[in-house]
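Journal club prep — side note

Before the paper discussion, L.F. wants everyone to see what a predicted structure for a comparable chain looks like in token form. Sequence:
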Amino acid sequence: MNEPSLAMAGLFNVDGYLVQPSALRVSRKGKDARLEAKVMLVLVYLAENAGRVVSRAELEEQIWPGRFVTEDSVTAAIAKLRRVFADNAHAPRVIETVPKSGYRLIAEVTPVADGDANGAGLPASASTLRRWSRRRVMVRIGAVLASLLLIAGVWRLLDMGGSMPLLSGALADRPTVAVLPFENLGVAPEQDYFTNGITADLITDLSKLQALFVIAPGSVFAYEGGKQGARQISRDMDLDYVVVGSVQRVDDRLRINVQIIETGRERAVWGERYKGSMNDLFGLQDRISSAVIAALKVKLSPSEQALLAGRPTANVLAYDYYLRGMQDHGSRSASQNESAREYFRRAIELDPGFARAYAGLAMTYSREAMDGWSAHPRRALELAEELAGKASVMDPSSPQVHFAVGQEALFRRQHAQAIAAAERAIDVEPSYADAYALKAWTLNYEGHPAAARAALDQATRLSPRSPASYLEILGEIQYTQGRY
């Protein structure tokens, strides 16, 4: 039996946009946008139920029947629809998020009248909309979806080393912010480590605030050195604000420019220039963090004010060595692990109370043991435990310190201690993606794959362009669940 054509009967308008379900197309004023099949099905279902709150569970059941999906599937679909309709999650015209309930299509939906090539139509009642056969739409989209799945499957086989798929990080109750890698305007490219350190510390400061949803460094640094503009990056990750900047370091002099861009209106809402010497570095960082927080209209709690009150060290040269160490440690090679260790040791010599440097040193030993770079891995783990423990006593307010404690505890198979340390890191820094990933990794080893998947989903929301290690953790969780 042939299915009826949807060429005209399936067309409808939403907020001035013409939606063509069978063509997977949304258009307005001569500009077309193509949607993935599942995203179009979400739109069709919301249109059929316009004005009614549709729960996440209902969308999962209707759009992904019989399949296990994470809440990210729905979140990502809604985010893509909002981008197509130029909708704002915090001041919606088209799709409204109802906290703890679901989503509601609030724009007027009108079916297209027969023969009307311009897509004009009359307002439709709910019963009229439901007469559009969603099953017919699904059958026609099914063929397209099958082709897309085949292509996607081949692509995944060719790109198994890639990162996790991009997922929306936006939450209805918190603005989503990304601090993009500051540009190094100095004459020496080898100063990139310093510029990256300034960026990472600003991300850490903002991540300590409950009022913001801050994209993790692993995702933003994926754009380092690329040609993507703030507009494209904000669309990739469904952002509300982007913080951009530059650092110029010439001898002992510093010049730092910072700007906040509101992505919805594509306009700068705040910007400032800061000048000083290296001796003024920590004061400059405090001023920048305070100004960015104020520009984002975040009201700090007393505990958040205390967390932001101090810098990890008062010694600028020790801090410089620490940044060099973190740069080398992130390269994940035996030789650079050794050079990172030397930098951390120099930082500790200059400031014996520098907790983060002890944490970094601990991670070089645990990494050496786990990656097979040591002839005495047990001794390396013992040193990692000793150094991480010392760091946690020195500075219990540092999320990086708790992460180091958790990592070495995991490697020693002390799962309860590792989970507790990851949770302490999250308490200090609510947007700490790697701490959620560490918790997920440990929970899976402890035999709780469902809870592990929930923690990993949160890590992925915070770090949409997540590192390969997240993909590895996901594979281990699915293996534990028998989802081969």
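L.F.'s comment for the group: The first helix runs from residue 37 to 48. Keep this in mind when we get to the figures.
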